[in-house]
Design a protein that fits this description.
GO terms for molecular function: galactosylceramidase activity; glucosylceramidase activity; glucosyltransferase activity; signaling receptor binding; steryl-beta-glucosidase activity. With 522 residues, the protein is of the alpha/beta class. The chain is built from twelve helices and 22 strands.
Protein backbone atom coordinates (compact mmCIF):
# COMPACT_ATOMS: atom_id res chain seq x y z
CA UNK A 1 0.00 0.00 0.00
CA UNK A 2 2.83 2.41 0.98
CA UNK A 3 4.67 1.57 -2.22
CA UNK A 4 1.51 2.30 -4.20
CA UNK A 5 1.02 5.58 -2.33
CA UNK A 6 4.66 6.58 -2.92
CA UNK A 7 4.24 5.77 -6.61
CA UNK A 8 1.07 7.91 -6.76
CA UNK A 9 2.82 10.83 -5.04
CA UNK A 10 5.79 10.47 -7.38
CA UNK A 11 3.46 10.36 -10.38
CA UNK A 12 1.60 13.45 -9.12
CA UNK A 13 4.90 15.27 -8.60
CA UNK A 14 6.03 14.32 -12.08
CA UNK A 15 2.75 15.61 -13.54
CA UNK A 16 3.10 18.79 -11.52
CA UNK A 17 6.67 19.27 -12.73
CA UNK A 18 5.54 18.67 -16.30
CA UNK A 19 2.80 21.29 -15.86
CA UNK A 20 5.23 23.81 -14.37
CA UNK A 21 7.70 23.24 -17.18
CA UNK A 22 4.92 23.53 -19.72
CA UNK A 23 3.52 26.76 -18.28
CA UNK A 24 7.01 28.23 -17.91
CA UNK A 25 7.65 27.56 -21.58
CA UNK A 26 4.12 28.24 -22.71
CA UNK A 27 4.73 31.91 -23.44
CA UNK A 28 6.92 31.09 -26.44
CA UNK A 29 5.98 32.24 -29.92
CA UNK A 30 4.62 29.57 -32.25
CA UNK A 31 6.59 30.88 -35.20
CA UNK A 32 5.45 30.63 -38.80
CA UNK A 33 7.50 31.75 -41.75
CA UNK A 34 5.66 33.07 -44.81
CA UNK A 35 8.80 33.71 -46.85
CA UNK A 36 9.64 37.21 -45.63
CA UNK A 37 12.64 38.31 -43.56
CA UNK A 38 11.20 37.18 -40.19
CA UNK A 39 8.26 35.32 -38.64
CA UNK A 40 4.75 35.78 -37.26
CA UNK A 41 3.46 34.17 -34.06
CA UNK A 42 0.33 32.05 -34.52
CA UNK A 43 -2.44 32.03 -31.88
CA UNK A 44 -5.65 30.06 -31.44
CA UNK A 45 -8.32 29.71 -28.73
CA UNK A 46 -6.14 27.67 -26.36
CA UNK A 47 -2.65 29.00 -27.02
CA UNK A 48 -0.93 32.34 -27.57
CA UNK A 49 2.52 33.52 -26.60
CA UNK A 50 2.58 36.10 -23.81
CA UNK A 51 5.13 37.83 -21.64
CA UNK A 52 2.68 37.89 -18.70
CA UNK A 53 2.38 40.79 -16.32
CA UNK A 54 6.11 41.73 -16.62
CA UNK A 55 6.75 42.58 -12.98
CA UNK A 56 10.25 43.83 -12.23
CA UNK A 57 12.85 42.07 -10.08
CA UNK A 58 14.03 43.70 -6.81
CA UNK A 59 16.49 46.60 -6.61
CA UNK A 60 19.92 45.59 -7.88
CA UNK A 61 18.57 43.56 -10.81
CA UNK A 62 17.06 44.50 -14.18
CA UNK A 63 14.62 42.96 -16.66
CA UNK A 64 15.19 42.81 -20.40
CA UNK A 65 12.77 42.08 -23.25
CA UNK A 66 14.12 41.39 -26.72
CA UNK A 67 12.48 41.18 -30.14
CA UNK A 68 14.59 40.66 -33.24
CA UNK A 69 14.65 39.89 -36.93
CA UNK A 70 16.26 36.57 -35.94
CA UNK A 71 12.96 35.56 -34.30
CA UNK A 72 12.97 36.66 -30.65
CA UNK A 73 9.58 38.01 -29.58
CA UNK A 74 9.55 39.95 -26.29
CA UNK A 75 11.98 37.36 -24.98
CA UNK A 76 12.39 38.01 -21.25
CA UNK A 77 15.70 38.02 -19.39
CA UNK A 78 17.18 39.26 -16.12
CA UNK A 79 20.56 40.42 -14.94
CA UNK A 80 22.49 42.09 -12.14
CA UNK A 81 23.07 45.81 -11.97
CA UNK A 82 26.82 46.28 -11.47
CA UNK A 83 28.58 48.60 -9.06
CA UNK A 84 31.46 49.15 -11.47
CA UNK A 85 31.58 50.08 -15.16
CA UNK A 86 32.12 47.25 -17.63
CA UNK A 87 34.39 49.57 -19.60
CA UNK A 88 32.12 49.38 -22.65
CA UNK A 89 33.00 51.77 -25.45
CA UNK A 90 29.46 53.12 -25.57
CA UNK A 91 27.70 54.33 -22.44
CA UNK A 92 24.10 55.57 -22.27
CA UNK A 93 23.72 57.77 -19.19
CA UNK A 94 20.25 58.24 -17.71
CA UNK A 95 19.59 61.76 -16.44
CA UNK A 96 16.50 61.59 -14.21
CA UNK A 97 16.61 65.35 -13.58
CA UNK A 98 16.09 66.20 -17.23
CA UNK A 99 12.31 65.85 -17.35
CA UNK A 100 10.14 66.14 -20.46
CA UNK A 101 6.56 65.19 -21.39
CA UNK A 102 4.37 62.62 -19.62
CA UNK A 103 2.94 59.66 -21.53
CA UNK A 104 -0.77 59.42 -22.30
CA UNK A 105 -0.80 55.98 -23.92
CA UNK A 106 -0.59 53.68 -26.93
CA UNK A 107 -3.21 51.83 -28.93
CA UNK A 108 -4.98 51.23 -32.22
CA UNK A 109 -8.25 51.82 -34.05
CA UNK A 110 -11.57 49.98 -33.79
CA UNK A 111 -12.55 50.40 -37.43
CA UNK A 112 -15.46 48.54 -39.04
CA UNK A 113 -12.84 46.28 -40.67
CA UNK A 114 -11.20 45.52 -37.32
CA UNK A 115 -14.56 44.62 -35.79
CA UNK A 116 -15.58 42.46 -38.78
CA UNK A 117 -12.30 40.55 -38.59
CA UNK A 118 -12.44 39.95 -34.83
CA UNK A 119 -16.04 38.72 -35.13
CA UNK A 120 -15.09 36.38 -38.01
CA UNK A 121 -13.33 34.19 -35.41
CA UNK A 122 -14.88 31.74 -32.93
CA UNK A 123 -15.73 33.09 -29.45
CA UNK A 124 -12.61 31.61 -27.83
CA UNK A 125 -10.26 33.07 -30.43
CA UNK A 126 -11.98 36.47 -30.21
CA UNK A 127 -11.34 36.51 -26.46
CA UNK A 128 -7.73 35.46 -26.95
CA UNK A 129 -7.20 38.25 -29.48
CA UNK A 130 -8.79 40.94 -27.28
CA UNK A 131 -6.73 39.73 -24.31
CA UNK A 132 -3.55 40.06 -26.37
CA UNK A 133 -4.24 43.75 -26.88
CA UNK A 134 -6.00 44.85 -23.71
CA UNK A 135 -5.40 42.61 -20.70
CA UNK A 136 -2.56 42.95 -18.19
CA UNK A 137 -1.11 39.70 -19.63
CA UNK A 138 -1.31 41.26 -23.10
CA UNK A 139 0.39 44.40 -24.36
CA UNK A 140 -1.70 46.90 -22.43
CA UNK A 141 -3.33 49.09 -25.09
CA UNK A 142 -5.11 52.02 -23.42
CA UNK A 143 -6.01 54.20 -26.42
CA UNK A 144 -8.65 53.24 -28.99
CA UNK A 145 -9.46 55.47 -31.94
CA UNK A 146 -13.06 55.10 -33.07
CA UNK A 147 -14.12 56.34 -36.51
CA UNK A 148 -17.39 58.29 -36.39
CA UNK A 149 -19.46 56.50 -39.07
CA UNK A 150 -17.80 55.05 -42.18
CA UNK A 151 -14.26 55.36 -43.48
CA UNK A 152 -12.38 53.48 -46.18
CA UNK A 153 -12.09 50.50 -43.78
CA UNK A 154 -15.86 50.01 -43.93
CA UNK A 155 -17.85 47.88 -46.34
CA UNK A 156 -20.22 50.69 -47.34
CA UNK A 157 -20.64 54.48 -47.31
CA UNK A 158 -22.77 55.91 -44.48
CA UNK A 159 -23.03 58.65 -41.87
CA UNK A 160 -25.34 58.91 -38.83
CA UNK A 161 -27.48 61.64 -40.40
CA UNK A 162 -28.09 60.80 -44.05
CA UNK A 163 -31.54 62.44 -44.21
CA UNK A 164 -31.16 65.58 -46.37
CA UNK A 165 -31.68 68.99 -44.72
CA UNK A 166 -31.96 67.43 -41.23
CA UNK A 167 -30.23 70.41 -39.57
CA UNK A 168 -31.63 69.54 -36.12
CA UNK A 169 -30.36 65.96 -36.54
CA UNK A 170 -33.79 64.58 -35.64
CA UNK A 171 -32.97 61.40 -37.57
CA UNK A 172 -29.44 60.99 -36.15
CA UNK A 173 -28.89 57.30 -35.45
CA UNK A 174 -25.88 55.04 -34.91
CA UNK A 175 -25.25 52.42 -37.59
CA UNK A 176 -25.59 48.63 -37.21
CA UNK A 177 -21.76 48.59 -37.42
CA UNK A 178 -21.65 50.56 -34.15
CA UNK A 179 -24.43 48.78 -32.29
CA UNK A 180 -23.71 45.19 -33.35
CA UNK A 181 -19.94 45.24 -33.72
CA UNK A 182 -17.82 48.17 -32.49
CA UNK A 183 -19.69 48.95 -29.25
CA UNK A 184 -19.84 45.33 -27.96
CA UNK A 185 -16.13 44.87 -28.76
CA UNK A 186 -15.18 48.14 -27.04
CA UNK A 187 -17.16 47.01 -23.99
CA UNK A 188 -15.33 43.68 -23.98
CA UNK A 189 -11.96 45.43 -24.35
CA UNK A 190 -12.78 47.73 -21.44
CA UNK A 191 -13.80 44.73 -19.29
CA UNK A 192 -10.40 43.10 -19.95
CA UNK A 193 -8.35 46.24 -19.34
CA UNK A 194 -7.03 46.92 -15.82
CA UNK A 195 -7.18 50.66 -16.64
CA UNK A 196 -9.93 52.82 -18.17
CA UNK A 197 -9.55 52.98 -21.95
CA UNK A 198 -9.01 56.42 -23.50
CA UNK A 199 -11.40 56.50 -26.45
CA UNK A 200 -10.68 58.93 -29.27
CA UNK A 201 -13.30 59.83 -31.91
CA UNK A 202 -12.48 60.95 -35.47
CA UNK A 203 -14.92 61.72 -38.27
CA UNK A 204 -14.01 61.14 -41.93
CA UNK A 205 -16.84 63.06 -43.57
CA UNK A 206 -19.92 65.10 -42.78
CA UNK A 207 -23.21 63.94 -44.37
CA UNK A 208 -23.27 64.62 -48.13
CA UNK A 209 -26.10 67.20 -47.85
CA UNK A 210 -23.91 69.41 -45.61
CA UNK A 211 -21.07 69.48 -48.16
CA UNK A 212 -20.13 71.62 -51.15
CA UNK A 213 -19.68 68.61 -53.44
CA UNK A 214 -22.80 66.74 -52.25
CA UNK A 215 -20.79 63.54 -51.70
CA UNK A 216 -18.96 61.75 -48.86
CA UNK A 217 -15.89 61.23 -51.05
CA UNK A 218 -13.71 63.52 -53.12
CA UNK A 219 -12.85 67.17 -52.78
CA UNK A 220 -15.44 68.96 -50.67
CA UNK A 221 -15.92 70.99 -47.51
CA UNK A 222 -18.83 72.21 -45.40
CA UNK A 223 -21.30 74.54 -47.13
CA UNK A 224 -21.50 78.13 -45.97
CA UNK A 225 -19.21 79.72 -43.41
CA UNK A 226 -18.17 78.90 -39.81
CA UNK A 227 -21.02 80.07 -37.59
CA UNK A 228 -23.53 79.14 -40.32
CA UNK A 229 -26.16 76.40 -40.15
CA UNK A 230 -24.10 73.60 -41.73
CA UNK A 231 -21.14 74.30 -39.44
CA UNK A 232 -23.41 74.42 -36.38
CA UNK A 233 -25.12 71.19 -37.41
CA UNK A 234 -21.77 69.45 -37.95
CA UNK A 235 -20.66 70.48 -34.45
CA UNK A 236 -23.91 69.11 -32.98
CA UNK A 237 -23.29 65.84 -34.85
CA UNK A 238 -20.23 65.35 -32.63
CA UNK A 239 -22.29 65.96 -29.49
CA UNK A 240 -24.98 63.50 -30.64
CA UNK A 241 -22.27 60.88 -31.26
CA UNK A 242 -20.93 61.31 -27.70
CA UNK A 243 -24.47 61.10 -26.31
CA UNK A 244 -25.31 57.89 -28.19
CA UNK A 245 -22.10 56.12 -27.16
CA UNK A 246 -22.60 57.24 -23.54
CA UNK A 247 -25.85 55.21 -23.51
CA UNK A 248 -23.59 52.14 -23.79
CA UNK A 249 -21.34 53.35 -20.95
CA UNK A 250 -18.61 54.37 -23.39
CA UNK A 251 -17.23 57.87 -22.83
CA UNK A 252 -14.60 59.60 -24.92
CA UNK A 253 -11.37 61.09 -23.63
CA UNK A 254 -10.92 63.13 -26.83
CA UNK A 255 -12.14 63.87 -30.31
CA UNK A 256 -10.31 65.22 -33.33
CA UNK A 257 -11.55 67.99 -35.59
CA UNK A 258 -11.71 65.48 -38.46
CA UNK A 259 -9.50 62.96 -40.21
CA UNK A 260 -6.97 64.37 -42.70
CA UNK A 261 -8.62 67.71 -43.53
CA UNK A 262 -5.99 68.43 -46.19
CA UNK A 263 -7.22 65.42 -48.19
CA UNK A 264 -10.71 66.81 -48.74
CA UNK A 265 -9.27 70.25 -49.37
CA UNK A 266 -6.44 69.60 -51.80
CA UNK A 267 -7.05 66.25 -53.46
CA UNK A 268 -9.93 64.43 -55.12
CA UNK A 269 -9.87 61.67 -52.50
CA UNK A 270 -11.36 58.34 -53.56
CA UNK A 271 -12.74 57.71 -50.05
CA UNK A 272 -14.50 59.64 -47.30
CA UNK A 273 -13.01 63.07 -46.62
CA UNK A 274 -13.97 66.53 -45.41
CA UNK A 275 -11.81 69.46 -46.41
CA UNK A 276 -10.76 72.21 -44.01
CA UNK A 277 -8.09 74.85 -44.37
CA UNK A 278 -6.38 75.71 -41.06
CA UNK A 279 -8.28 79.03 -41.10
CA UNK A 280 -11.63 77.25 -41.56
CA UNK A 281 -10.77 74.73 -38.83
CA UNK A 282 -9.81 77.57 -36.48
CA UNK A 283 -13.10 79.40 -37.04
CA UNK A 284 -15.24 76.24 -36.84
CA UNK A 285 -13.68 75.38 -33.48
CA UNK A 286 -14.06 78.96 -32.19
CA UNK A 287 -17.63 79.54 -33.37
CA UNK A 288 -19.21 76.08 -33.48
CA UNK A 289 -17.48 72.99 -32.06
CA UNK A 290 -15.95 74.65 -28.98
CA UNK A 291 -19.15 76.37 -27.78
CA UNK A 292 -21.24 73.24 -28.58
CA UNK A 293 -18.97 71.02 -26.46
CA UNK A 294 -18.85 73.56 -23.63
CA UNK A 295 -22.66 73.71 -23.51
CA UNK A 296 -23.02 69.90 -23.71
CA UNK A 297 -22.74 67.18 -21.07
CA UNK A 298 -19.13 66.63 -22.25
CA UNK A 299 -17.29 69.93 -21.63
CA UNK A 300 -14.14 68.09 -20.49
CA UNK A 301 -13.71 66.06 -23.68
CA UNK A 302 -10.37 67.01 -25.23
CA UNK A 303 -10.27 68.59 -28.69
CA UNK A 304 -7.30 67.69 -30.92
CA UNK A 305 -6.72 69.71 -34.07
CA UNK A 306 -5.05 68.68 -37.36
CA UNK A 307 -5.34 64.82 -37.28
CA UNK A 308 -3.18 64.86 -40.38
CA UNK A 309 0.46 64.48 -41.46
CA UNK A 310 3.02 66.25 -39.33
CA UNK A 311 4.56 67.95 -42.39
CA UNK A 312 1.68 70.47 -42.03
CA UNK A 313 3.33 71.63 -38.80
CA UNK A 314 4.13 74.13 -37.44
CA UNK A 315 2.06 76.19 -39.94
CA UNK A 316 -1.31 74.60 -39.07
CA UNK A 317 -0.75 75.00 -35.33
CA UNK A 318 0.24 78.65 -35.76
CA UNK A 319 -2.93 79.49 -37.68
CA UNK A 320 -5.26 77.78 -35.19
CA UNK A 321 -3.52 78.24 -31.83
CA UNK A 322 -2.59 81.90 -32.33
CA UNK A 323 -6.31 82.64 -32.23
CA UNK A 324 -7.39 83.04 -28.61
CA UNK A 325 -11.05 82.26 -29.42
CA UNK A 326 -10.19 78.85 -30.92
CA UNK A 327 -7.24 78.06 -28.64
CA UNK A 328 -9.33 78.16 -25.44
CA UNK A 329 -11.18 74.99 -26.57
CA UNK A 330 -8.14 73.03 -27.76
CA UNK A 331 -5.95 70.58 -25.81
CA UNK A 332 -3.60 69.07 -28.34
CA UNK A 333 -2.38 68.54 -31.90
CA UNK A 334 -2.94 65.13 -33.55
CA UNK A 335 -0.45 63.85 -36.12
CA UNK A 336 -0.30 60.99 -38.64
CA UNK A 337 2.94 59.26 -39.60
CA UNK A 338 2.63 59.18 -43.40
CA UNK A 339 5.27 61.35 -45.11
CA UNK A 340 7.26 61.65 -41.87
CA UNK A 341 10.50 61.32 -43.83
CA UNK A 342 9.69 64.50 -45.79
CA UNK A 343 10.06 66.92 -42.88
CA UNK A 344 12.45 66.35 -39.94
CA UNK A 345 10.73 65.83 -36.57
CA UNK A 346 12.74 68.68 -35.11
CA UNK A 347 11.20 71.16 -37.57
CA UNK A 348 7.60 69.88 -37.39
CA UNK A 349 7.10 68.48 -33.88
CA UNK A 350 9.96 70.23 -32.09
CA UNK A 351 9.07 73.71 -33.34
CA UNK A 352 5.38 73.19 -32.59
CA UNK A 353 6.19 72.11 -29.03
CA UNK A 354 8.54 75.06 -28.52
CA UNK A 355 5.91 77.51 -29.76
CA UNK A 356 2.96 75.96 -27.88
CA UNK A 357 4.30 73.90 -24.96
CA UNK A 358 0.93 73.92 -23.19
CA UNK A 359 -0.67 71.88 -26.02
CA UNK A 360 0.37 68.23 -26.26
CA UNK A 361 1.29 66.35 -29.44
CA UNK A 362 -0.41 63.01 -30.03
CA UNK A 363 0.05 60.38 -32.78
CA UNK A 364 -3.35 59.27 -34.07
CA UNK A 365 -2.65 57.09 -37.12
CA UNK A 366 0.06 54.91 -38.65
CA UNK A 367 0.18 51.70 -40.64
CA UNK A 368 2.60 49.63 -42.69
CA UNK A 369 1.84 48.65 -46.27
CA UNK A 370 0.26 51.99 -47.28
CA UNK A 371 3.00 52.89 -49.74
CA UNK A 372 2.07 52.05 -53.37
CA UNK A 373 5.60 50.66 -53.86
CA UNK A 374 5.25 48.22 -50.94
CA UNK A 375 1.58 47.60 -50.55
CA UNK A 376 -0.62 45.48 -48.28
CA UNK A 377 -0.07 42.59 -45.89
CA UNK A 378 3.38 41.04 -45.69
CA UNK A 379 3.36 38.31 -43.05
CA UNK A 380 6.54 38.40 -40.98
CA UNK A 381 8.23 41.53 -42.37
CA UNK A 382 10.72 42.74 -39.75
CA UNK A 383 11.62 46.02 -41.48
CA UNK A 384 8.07 47.21 -40.86
CA UNK A 385 8.53 46.62 -37.13
CA UNK A 386 11.71 48.70 -37.28
CA UNK A 387 9.86 51.53 -39.05
CA UNK A 388 7.24 51.56 -36.29
CA UNK A 389 9.83 51.59 -33.52
CA UNK A 390 11.93 54.25 -35.25
CA UNK A 391 8.91 56.51 -35.67
CA UNK A 392 7.69 56.06 -32.09
CA UNK A 393 11.15 56.76 -30.63
CA UNK A 394 11.56 59.82 -32.86
CA UNK A 395 8.06 61.07 -31.97
CA UNK A 396 8.42 60.66 -28.21
CA UNK A 397 11.89 62.24 -28.32
CA UNK A 398 10.14 65.29 -29.83
CA UNK A 399 7.41 65.58 -27.19
CA UNK A 400 4.66 63.31 -28.56
CA UNK A 401 2.68 61.85 -25.60
CA UNK A 402 1.13 58.81 -27.29
CA UNK A 403 1.04 56.87 -30.54
CA UNK A 404 -1.99 55.17 -32.09
CA UNK A 405 -1.73 52.50 -34.73
CA UNK A 406 -4.43 52.27 -37.43
CA UNK A 407 -6.53 49.05 -37.83
CA UNK A 408 -5.88 46.64 -34.96
CA UNK A 409 -6.96 43.62 -37.00
CA UNK A 410 -7.20 42.98 -40.74
CA UNK A 411 -7.63 39.90 -42.94
CA UNK A 412 -4.94 38.42 -45.17
CA UNK A 413 -5.82 40.77 -48.03
CA UNK A 414 -5.44 43.81 -45.75
CA UNK A 415 -9.17 44.55 -45.61
CA UNK A 416 -12.07 44.71 -45.88
CA UNK A 417 -11.84 48.15 -47.46
CA UNK A 418 -14.60 49.31 -49.79
CA UNK A 419 -12.20 51.29 -51.99
CA UNK A 420 -9.50 48.54 -51.95
CA UNK A 421 -7.05 50.74 -50.03
CA UNK A 422 -5.46 47.61 -48.52
CA UNK A 423 -2.72 47.98 -45.88
CA UNK A 424 -1.01 45.90 -43.16
CA UNK A 425 -1.90 45.49 -39.51
CA UNK A 426 -0.18 44.15 -36.33
CA UNK A 427 -2.73 41.30 -36.16
CA UNK A 428 -3.90 39.41 -39.23
CA UNK A 429 -6.72 36.86 -39.05
CA UNK A 430 -7.10 33.63 -40.99
CA UNK A 431 -10.80 33.01 -40.40
CA UNK A 432 -10.79 29.71 -42.32
CA UNK A 433 -8.27 28.22 -39.89
CA UNK A 434 -9.77 30.16 -36.93
CA UNK A 435 -6.35 31.56 -35.97
CA UNK A 436 -4.63 34.92 -35.93
CA UNK A 437 -1.05 35.96 -36.61
CA UNK A 438 0.84 38.51 -34.54
CA UNK A 439 3.06 40.45 -36.89
CA UNK A 440 6.49 41.89 -35.99
CA UNK A 441 4.73 45.30 -35.73
CA UNK A 442 2.60 43.89 -32.89
CA UNK A 443 5.78 43.39 -30.87
CA UNK A 444 7.08 46.79 -31.92
CA UNK A 445 4.00 48.33 -30.32
CA UNK A 446 4.37 46.04 -27.29
CA UNK A 447 7.84 47.33 -26.42
CA UNK A 448 6.17 50.68 -25.73
CA UNK A 449 2.53 49.99 -24.81
CA UNK A 450 3.36 47.22 -22.33
CA UNK A 451 5.91 49.21 -20.37
CA UNK A 452 5.08 52.92 -20.71
CA UNK A 453 2.08 53.38 -18.44
CA UNK A 454 0.08 56.58 -18.47
CA UNK A 455 1.95 59.19 -16.41
CA UNK A 456 5.42 57.81 -17.25
CA UNK A 457 7.75 60.75 -17.84
CA UNK A 458 10.45 60.95 -20.48
CA UNK A 459 13.87 61.77 -19.06
CA UNK A 460 17.27 62.58 -20.49
CA UNK A 461 19.66 59.99 -21.99
CA UNK A 462 23.10 60.97 -23.23
CA UNK A 463 25.46 58.74 -25.22
CA UNK A 464 29.22 58.81 -24.58
CA UNK A 465 29.81 58.79 -28.36
CA UNK A 466 27.93 58.70 -31.65
CA UNK A 467 25.99 55.50 -32.15
CA UNK A 468 23.56 53.79 -34.54
CA UNK A 469 21.32 52.94 -31.58
CA UNK A 470 18.05 54.84 -31.22
CA UNK A 471 16.66 55.16 -27.70
CA UNK A 472 14.32 56.86 -25.27
CA UNK A 473 14.09 56.63 -21.46
CA UNK A 474 11.20 57.09 -19.04
CA UNK A 475 10.58 57.10 -15.31
CA UNK A 476 7.29 55.35 -14.51
CA UNK A 477 4.81 56.39 -11.86
CA UNK A 478 6.32 53.90 -9.36
CA UNK A 479 9.83 55.32 -9.86
CA UNK A 480 11.12 52.46 -12.03
CA UNK A 481 13.05 53.25 -15.20
CA UNK A 482 12.28 51.99 -18.72
CA UNK A 483 14.81 52.34 -21.54
CA UNK A 484 13.79 51.37 -25.09
CA UNK A 485 16.56 50.76 -27.62
CA UNK A 486 16.33 50.10 -31.36
CA UNK A 487 19.24 48.70 -33.37
CA UNK A 488 18.48 48.95 -37.10
CA UNK A 489 22.07 48.09 -38.05
CA UNK A 490 23.30 44.66 -39.08
CA UNK A 491 25.92 44.62 -36.31
CA UNK A 492 25.72 43.61 -32.67
CA UNK A 493 26.24 46.78 -30.60
CA UNK A 494 27.76 46.43 -27.13
CA UNK A 495 26.92 49.15 -24.61
CA UNK A 496 26.35 49.82 -20.95
CA UNK A 497 23.64 51.88 -19.26
CA UNK A 498 24.61 54.07 -16.35
CA UNK A 499 21.82 55.10 -14.01
CA UNK A 500 23.54 57.18 -11.29
CA UNK A 501 20.85 56.13 -8.79
CA UNK A 502 21.52 52.36 -9.12
CA UNK A 503 24.67 51.57 -11.12
CA UNK A 504 25.75 50.02 -14.42
CA UNK A 505 23.89 47.67 -16.76
CA UNK A 506 26.14 46.00 -19.37
CA UNK A 507 24.22 44.75 -22.41
CA UNK A 508 24.36 44.18 -26.14
CA UNK A 509 21.77 44.90 -28.82
CA UNK A 510 21.69 42.14 -31.45
CA UNK A 511 21.54 43.12 -35.13
CA UNK A 512 18.09 44.31 -36.17
CA UNK A 513 16.57 44.22 -32.71
CA UNK A 514 14.29 46.11 -30.37
CA UNK A 515 15.02 46.02 -26.67
CA UNK A 516 13.24 47.18 -23.52
CA UNK A 517 15.28 47.36 -20.32
CA UNK A 518 13.54 48.09 -17.01
CA UNK A 519 14.69 48.34 -13.39
CA UNK A 520 13.63 49.55 -9.97
CA UNK A 521 15.36 52.52 -8.33
CA UNK A 522 14.20 51.95 -4.76
Amino acid sequence: FLDKMAASVLLALLCLTAEVTLSAGSNKCVARNFGHDSVVCECNSTYCDSVGSATLPPLGQFSSYLSSKAGSRLEPGQGQVRVKSSGADLRLTINPYQKYQKVKGFGGAMTDATAINILSLSAGVQDQLLRQYFSSEGIGYTVVRVPMASCDFSTRLYTYADTPEDYNLDNFTLAPEDINMKIPLLQRAQALSPRPLSLLASAWSAPAWMKTNGALTGKGSLKGQPGGKEHKSWAQYYIRFLEEYAKYNLTFWALTTGNEPSAGEMTNYSFQALGFTPEEQRDWVALDLGPALKASSYPHTHVLILDDNRLLLPHWAKVVLNDVHAAQYIHGVAVHWYMDSVVPAEISLGTTHDLYPEYYLFGTEACAGWNPLDRGVKLGRWDRAEKYAHDIIEDVNYYVVGWTDWNMVLDQTGGPNWVKNFVDSPVIVDAKRDVFYKQPTFYSMAHFSKFLWEGSQRVGVSPSKETDLEYSAFIRTDGSVVLIILNRSSLVIEFEVWDPTVGYIPFSAPAHSLLTLAWNTH
